[in-house]
Amino acid sequence: MTKLMTVNDVAEFLGVPKSWVYDNWKREAIPFKRVGQGLRVRPNDLNRWLDEQGAK
Question: Which residues neighbour 3 within 8 Å (Cβ) at sequence distance 6 or greater?
């Protein structure tokens, strides 16, 4: 089973501040899902999202 990434994980992975991650999630650009009180994303979904960013 793959570990889900948190907002902190995504910010570190992308090299951006957490505020940037939250802003982009709010615009539904990053494919987060709510898990309890937090946001989580599958690494494969994040990589797919990154690949799609180059196509825009």
Answer: 43
